Amino acid sequence: MERFFQQNDAQKAATEEVNKGTSILFYSIDKFCFGAQAFPNQMFVILQVSSPVKPTTGSEVSQHRDQSPQRLSVSTKVNTRSLSANSLSSLNGSPDKTVKQDTDSYNRNEHPEPAEGCDMCSNYEAQLVRAQQCSRDMERQLGVSERTCERLREDLGKESTFRKEMEERWSQKKEEHKAQVAKGSQVWLQVAELKKQMLLAENEMRDLRNAFQLLHGEVLERLNSLSNQREQVQQQLVRLQEENDQLVGKHSVAAETLQNERIDFPDTVEELQELLLKCRDDLIRSKLASERLEEDVRTLQCENQLLRAQMDAEQAGRVSMEDNLSSELDNLKTELHQVKRECKVHQGSVENLQLTVTAHQETISDLKSRLDTALRAKVRVLAVLEGMLVMLEGVLVMPEGVLVVLEGMLVVLQKHLEDTVAELRSRVASLQQELDNSEAVQKDFVRLSQSLQVQLERIRDTDMEVRWQHDEDIDECQGCHTSFSVARRKQHCRHCGRIFCVSCLSHTVLSGPHQRPSRVCDVCHTLLVRDTAPYFSTEPPHTPD
């Protein structure tokens, strides 16, 4: 720009010299680049002629234009002015040489003939007019270039502000990316912690299942022992009844014989002594029989006491088992609440885990209630047995008519015991079925957790490799493992890049600024759409090969 202003000052000085009457040749070689504001080197050659020249008009210049030889010519255009053949080729190389050539031509023509000198003056004047016109064009171009420079400066300021804004946005995006990376690492840590807690929960559920199996075995053993004891008591009752029948038969026979016989006491003392000895013998036998019955009663009482002690021990064991189970359940509840608080992001998996744990809790509570009912039934049976023992103790002093009532009660008691045993067997069968169902649910839950771990490892591995799968590398669907054919085409998931069949890519997700629908797989749909249910909520996923 400074060189451009120097050129303008030089043009103004040349114009003033022309107005004073001095003939000046002003040559300007300008290659002005208007769009890019480039101002190349410009050259000014000023030749003063000693002879004064009067001003000429444009008509006089046009009359003498064809008569004089034109060594130097100036053609004015919008962006380019050129010299004649003698000076144009040498201006770009050395300006001093061009000035020297023009000076030599002036010296050769210093004393021309009068006619030739006038023609040269008219040519110089015409050239001077053209130089003035070129100067005015240059001034106009100067104004245009200044306005263009101002506009470009404004554009440069806008460009600098835009660049600053873009740098700020880039830094902001960089910080957001760093935050997302940190958040992703935290999510992976939470997933690892969830895996550990899941393994702990599985171990605790396994311990609970073992405890339930042990308790179930103990209950079966108790039932078998009670049934054996019931059979023994029944056998003892049968034996006592037989002995009673024998005694009653003997007494009845003796009574009938006494009634039928006449009471004839012997006449001699020896016969009376023999009769007395027989009576004493019968009395001793009856005492022995009564003592034997008393021993049986005492043995039954001892067995009753043993049964009561066993019942107390069983109740104490049940109370301790309930306390342990309740404490373990409380621990499980606290751990589950902690998992819920920490894993809001993985809400679907935690809800499934919670449902499974609640189902196990309900099963355990149901088992507790059923065990309570079984224990109450045992208590009722023991109470009935105690009543029977009391009744048996009173058999020795009861008349014969009461024995019939006892037999009826014995039949009713036997029927009640049979009904109780059948009910307990049905309950044991139902409990076994529920245990099998709970084991199947737990197996499904383990399979689901393994599938989730495999899916997480696959997602972690895809972050470190190219996700897009090529068609020639895959021969079967990644979801249903069905081989591709002409009817079953290969389709790419638009998020993970894996290859599936059309039926496995049933979900669509809107993406991009134009919200175009894109087909995605079940796993990517669960990751992208947070409000939807997990893909494994309706059925367990396919187990990995």
Helix content estimate: over 70%
Major sheet: arrangement of strands: 1-2
Number of H/I helices: 9
Shape descriptor reads rod-shaped
Q: How large is the radius of gyration?
A: 62 Å
Strand content: 5-15%
Please trace the helix and strand order, writing H or E for each element: HEEHEEHHHHHHEEEEH
Outline the biggest β-sheet. 2 strands, antiparallel
> In total, how many beta strands?
8
GO molecular function, one term: GTPase activator activity
InterPro entries: Rabaptin, Rabaptin_Rab5-bd_dom, Znf_FYVE, Znf_FYVE-rel, Znf_FYVE_PHD, Znf_RING/FYVE/PHD
Keywords: Coiled coil, Metal-binding, Zinc, Zinc-finger
Protein name: FYVE-type domain-containing protein
Give structural notes.
The protein has 9 helices and 8 strands. By secondary structure, the protein is mostly helical. Helix 5 (114-260) packs antiparallel against helix 6 and helix 5 runs parallel beside helix 7. The two termini are 77 Å apart. InterPro entries: Rabaptin, Rabaptin_Rab5-bd_dom, Znf_FYVE, Znf_FYVE-rel, Znf_FYVE_PHD, Znf_RING/FYVE/PHD. Residues 471-529 form the FYVE-type domain.
